[in-house]
Structures are given as structure tokens and as C-alpha cells.
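User: Thanks for the earlier help. One more: 5-oxoprolinase. Can you show the sequence and predicted structure together?

Assistant: Of course, both are below.
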Amino acid sequence: MHSVRIGVDTGGTFTDVVLVDEASGQIVTTKTPSTPANPADGFLAGVHKVLELHGNLVGLEAVSALVHGTTVATNQLLEDRPDGTAHLGFVTTEGFEFILEIARQSVPDGYGNSYFWVKPPRIVPVHRVKTVGGRMDHLGAEVRPFDEDAAAETARWFREQGVTAIGVCFLHSYANPEHERRMRDVLAREHPDAVVSLSSDVLREYREYERSITTLVDAAVKPVMRRYIDNLSDRLGRGFSVMKSNGGVLSAAEVVHQPITTVLSGPAAGALGAALIASTAGHPSVITLDGGGTSTDVAVVVDGEPSQTTEGSIGRYPCKIPMIDIVTVGAGGGSIAWISPEGTLKVGPKSAGADPGPMCYGKGGTEVTVTDAHVFLGRVPPHLLGGEIPLDAAAARAGIEALAAKLGLTPERCATGILEISAFNQSNAIRQITVKRGLDVRDFPMVAFGGSGPLLACRLIDVLGLKAAIIPPEPGNVSAFGLLTVDVKNDYVRTHVTREPSLETMAGIFAELEAQAAEALDREGFTEHVYARSADLRYYGQAYEVRVPASDGPLTPAWQDAVVARFHEAHQKLYGYGYRDDPQHAVEWVNLRVSGIGPITRPAVARKPYQPGEPSPICTRDVFYESWARTVIYRRRELGAGAVVTGPAVIEEYGSTLPIHPGFTATMDDYGNLEVRRELG
């Protein structure tokens, strides 16, 4: 019997599925509508559908690996529902009960907003914050003993109040977690039904506010994640793995203990899948744009690796877990066009989602979306998924005409305006991930994927001055494909602030972190372990640090000099200055990190047969670019390597559509990618 691996990415509108046959290398892709009320329904429907398409398989017993990308764990926080954290409590060190209220005292959008900005509600209100006596210093030495009686009283209070998820963050527990672990023991004894997260387990790193928030987010999402994982495991009758935001995967059994690591899991898979596809085709450094039904996610890949950050956030909550550096904007196919009180046209961030969806879905949608504009202009065929989902073009036209009448515009001007605004929303997200990071956007080609990602590729080339846009095969399934390209990966960190590092001490810390990583990889069944070290450094007196790689092997003075040299170089690149040759500016080590990696075999990207002749269109239809015109339509699967399509044209495939504007060409490369460029001259 064949053995296959399946990746399932649950999005806001569609659930994308990719199957790889490990014997033949065959790749099968499909999509199925997402089921927001119970995402497990769409997941299972997609798995069974892809198995049927592959054929000759009895069922799930033929699946050797099942990897899932999901944002179930954090939807309640992203949506900011009032009841999302109603079950949450917080325990901290005596005297620090207002740590969440004080926060960082930063004002969004700078000082110009300071008179009008109102602090949002804290993740845990003051009345559900409890303190316990006991104190460690910054080196981990006990200053005051842990107050066992106060801890027991606190646990009983939470039990009586019905608080079932509790975050624990004591001062300096990154240096010595003993008091936090004793608090966990007390909670287990006095309130056994509670779900508990310790900051020393979630983020063993200094900065009390960020560590507290990260721990509380982890505690908040644990109950919903456990219910979802248990439900899915029961219905599957087997285990599976879940994508993490750091670019690795972890078994579902382990993920329930650290659910915060799954935030942005779907977008992370997309960036990794696009990185592999682009690198194979000779583009190691690219911008990735993942356009879905609800949002667009953008990232930067440099030398085959997506950029990482520990300064991410979940909604309005800062979370310092390692994650791929992704910027998300509410600009997807389902983004709703609306008129502001000032009478101007706006697009997003509100989305029609999968239910009811755009007006052209014919499921009761009453608001015009980006997809409706594409359908009205003829740039999208009158159906989705190869005919599985027929579209109501008349409903899209009626919606566009009604909105245009309110704005005093022609329907064509209104529809193109909607798409122009959506393109500028996406371009602003790309600028955030490039220009604001000190990168020149013109140095990178863009990999556009996702169901709606390729639709605005030509406009983004013009708006941003991009070299080219690369559209992978089956662009709507790149995130699901990415799930099958990633290793198992766990991250561990230890704060160690010093200007005069002891190599022996640091070697001991790295050894402890690697031992933790080895234990986790053993539980995952890996006999081959790979460890990636890194360190956070800064100039003495700075508030924030820069993360740089630290090579493996013994720690020697030469090793130390190499890490410091990387820091000087990275600082110069990021901020435009450095103090490499200035002894007055000492370098301070802050955090030591280890990533434990269990490597997998990645699927091969197949070459495309060469096409000797001119490509033949399958039909024509009226499409509006600069004016209405009869336009040739191509089917992508009928194009071979070397095929060139000159705009105006439209290239259609199962999960996505690529409009080629006048003045642009799309060329098929050896691996089936379409390279879209503006014609020279």
C-alpha cells in the first residue's frame, strides 16, 4: 500500500489540502469550503476529498503524516470578544499587582494620539489579579521565601470564582523558576480543574510585562485548543502534527501544552512553502504575499530563510515567542467595500468570510467585496474550484451598480477603485515588512499565492516597482504544501545579561537548553537531532537587542569574537550605524537561545515539460482592464515550460486566477512558476 503525507491549512474562507505520495512523488491538491462553526468539519472533508482524488487508497491508514495549520487557538483573542478571557486569572509577585495596568505606557501612532487614546481593557482585570509573597533576585537567589499559605488561599479563591485558566509570572523567575513551580503544585492540589501556564515554561526571558502577557495568552487559549485538538483526534482516530509560528511543527499531543506557539501557523507555512518553491526556481530572496479570503499575509525571505522576530503580537497583546516575521492586513477576496461617513470609498478590514461570503456566492451576502469587483470586471471566471462553486455574476453586478450609484461613479470606475484600494492596502503591508526593516522592496521579486494573491500581481508590480511577480503552481495551496516542507522545531531561551561573559557559564546554559531540546525531540520520535544556537546582544545602555546566529561547537574566545562581529554587522545593517571599533560602547549579552530541530524529507518540486509552440487559449470573454474588450483565456495546466502569455489575458486554474494586464507578460519557468513582468520599452 502507498504511504502518503497530507497537509491541511484551515483558512477563513477555504480549507486547503495537499497530498504527497512518498513512493511516486505525486502531489495532489484540492480545496473545500471552511466551516467556521466547527473547523474540524472542513478539515475532515478536505482529508477525505484528497484521498479520493489520489485513488487506490483505503483511507486514513495509508497516511504516514498529517500536518495541520490552524489559528483556532488565537481566534478569540484576534476577534477581541469580551468573553474571550472571562475565565482567565493571574498570579504574580506581592507588590506587582498592577504590572498589567502599567504595561509599557506606549501610545499607538505616536504622541499625536496621546490626548485621545484610551487604554484598552487589560487581558486580566485587576480584580482577578492575585499576588503571593516570595522573591528571587535577578541572579536567581531567594530573597524572601515562598508564602505557601497565601498561595493556597489564592488557589481556593480562583476555584470559588470559577476562574479555570491561570497564568503565573513571578519576578525574576527566568533566573530561578522554583517559586512558580511550587505555585503550580499548590494550584494542582487546591484547584485541580484549572489549566495553568508558568512564565518559566512559556518564555524564560526577562521583561516582566511581555513575559506576563505572553504567559496569559498561552493560558487563555489552552482550553479552546485542547477541546479542538481532542475533538479532531477523536474524529480522526489517530494523531497529527500542528504547524508552529516559528517555522516548525509539533505533535498535537505536545501542542496542547504550549498552544501560543501556533499563532500565525497557517501564514508561517505559506512563507516556508513559497521560500522552498522560489529557491528551487533560483530566487533565494523574495517577498511572499499570501492572499486569502479574509486577509493578506506578507513576509520577507532572505537566502531561503523567512525572517524571524520575537517582537510579534496577537491582536493587541505583545507576545515574545519566536515567530516568522509576518505582517497581516485585512485585504482579502472577501474584504467588504463600504462608504465612510465622509463619503469616501473604503475596502476592509471587515470581511464577508466564508459564510455568507461575497454577493456572487449566492449565499445571502449583501455587501460588495473585492471578489465581486473581480467578477464584475470579468477577471475571475463565473465559477470557482473548476466549476464546483458557481458564481452569481448578476448579483455581483447589481451590488457594484448600487454602490457606484451612491458614490456617483460608473460601475467600472467603482469596481476598479475597489481593486486599487485593495492593492494599496497590500502594498502598505509589503512596505512595513521591507522599507521599515531597512530593505529596498525593488531588490526582491514577489511570490504571490493564496486564492486571491495573484489577482493584483500586475498592479503591485507597478505600485511598488517590483522586479517581477512569481505565481507558483496551485497558488491556492502553497500554505498547505508548506506544511509538508517543515521540520519539527522547538525553541528555548535563557536570559543571561552580562558585559563580561564567562564562556564556561554560557556553555553550561547552552548545554541545559540543548538537553531540553533533545528531550522534546525524543518524545517526538526523532533519533537525529540538530541544534541551532543564537544570542541576543545590544550596546550597553540600549533598551532592546539584536538576535544573531551563534555557531555550535566549543565556546572559545574566537567563537565569542565571531558572535560579536555578527552583532556589529547586523546592527549596522538594521539601523545604519554600529560601534565595531569603538571600545567606549561595550557589547552586552542578554539572551541565549537554542532551537531543537528534527529534520524531515522535503517533497521534491517537479520540472515542467517544455512547450515548443505558442500557447493556445481555451476561449475568450469580455474583460475590463482599461476598457471592455474581448480577451483571451488560458488554462494553466495546458502551458509548458517556456510558454509566454502577453496581456491583456487571463490565466485560470483550479484554485486561483491570474489576470495579465496590458503591457505585461507571464512566462512559465522550468518548475511551472509563472513569472509576471512589465514588458520592456
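User: Great, one quick takeaway?

Assistant: Residues 491 and 500 are 25 Å apart (CA to CA).
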